[in-house]
Amino acid sequence: MGKIKRYSKVILFEHWLIALSGIMLIFTGLGCLPLFKRYYITELPGLKWTADFYLLTKLHYIFAIFFTFGVFFHITYHLIRRDFGLLPRKGDFVNSIKAILASFGLTKHPPADKWLPEQRYAYVGIAGVTSILVITGILKVLKNLEWIVYPPKVESVVNLLHTIFGGLFILLFLVHLFFVLGVKANWPLLKAMFTGKVEEEYVRERHSLWLRKLKKRNNLDTRSKN
Amino acid sequence: MNFNRRQFFKVALGLSALALTPKELKASPGKYATLIDITKCDRCEGEFMPLCVKACREVNKHRFPDPKKPIPPYWPRKTYEDWSDKREIIDTLSPYNWLFIQKVEIEGHTLFIPRRCMHCDSPPCVKGCPFGALSKQPEGNTVIDHNICFGGAKCRDVCPWHIPQRQAGVGIYLKLMPKLAGGGVMYKCDLCDARIKRGEEPACVVACRERLKDRAVYTFGKREEIFALAKNRASEEGLYIYGDRQNGGTSTLYLSSIPFEKIEAKLKETRARFGMPVKVVNRYMEEINPWGKAVLVAGALGIGAGLVGAFYSKKEEKEEKHGENQEIF
Question: In chain B, what are the domain boundaries?
């Protein structure tokens, strides 16, 4: 059985850069809330340093360097390449429901392209929340540098929005983890996030539209070579 | 795409240089400042309550917390901060006492130091509050919005003087997840925000002047004038200044005939609840902000790398189409 390349090295790099720095931003961000002292985390062996808000904020900034790079790279790279496969299409809502039911073995998989319809919704959700986090984060950085002085109300709103959207980010991250780790039908996609490839059998079953496109292109290329 | 590697590095370097150019680390000062002359304070000798403290409590009493009882503890801990049965305490800061007179005995002298929020030029409490409950006003004062404050007490932790005080059992946290998050509301001096916005002076300043006339401890006014006055008096009378440099500068200046290093040492020795550290670095400015510049550079580099990456991937795709198909193997 053949294997099909699903993710390029660039995609793997983007995903893991954003994922790993994002996880560290969640940890340091929760620490900045403040929650760690109350919940005894600062008393755990090796985690005493989490009681220092200044250190936590500094680390939050350091992980934000990687996260911000990843997000801006992602937007620019895919915008120029016109990779819009993860943006919702007509009929995605009904197909999302069908596909989620199919993931739990309740119905048959509706024919899907490279990306599943529910993935497209998830992408828009997490991309929207991430955008607001990055924008408010940058506004906070500029404010703390005092390159810009906001009116008091604006300062309050920016701080509050960053915290609220941080909470939404954690929520969506947990939903993402659930669908990746908890739903067996998605395990080949998890494996692909490490290897970049998926089994042809999996694609045939779940991404028939994508397979058709790949084959069509393959034929075209073979024909053009002849 | 007309963007080669060399051009990309040029742009990236340019943006990095721009962001990393050392901009003078200068806090944004407000309009007003207060001079507190310790050489003149006698804690209103003969009075039960110093008049500045009395005036402060009177002006702000409508904003004091009135907690609902029983107060839920900060789960999973069994504790909570409650000052509601100690409202009469006037010799320290509390949610019911935003100004107190600290007594210090040094070398046979008794000093009385009015203590309250310093109103920093670059306040870490404002920068650190995750809920936006704290804000720096154009007048130079720092204000807590009691309606938004969750009472996490981070502002107290990041404040070099640990000024804000917490009262549990009040505030917005009770309406959300009182068991899991939030601890009440934080309280501190806001330099009589409403009064100074109306063009009046803070209540403590007025009360002191009513008693001591031109020998008043407090002088409130335009920042430049207060700073000039403090510097003149310090050089003419051999006095020491506190508050001009601490934490990157504040809008509260103390004048003393005894060096502040000695006051700091004495407060440390007596384990006073509120110290007066002389060397106070603004950690946001020193430790955090340089990384903020790096975050901005990273964003610009991300865009640059995205442009270069897209350019090369398109080129590769074109080459791939002429060669063997790589998608299925």
Answer: 32-281
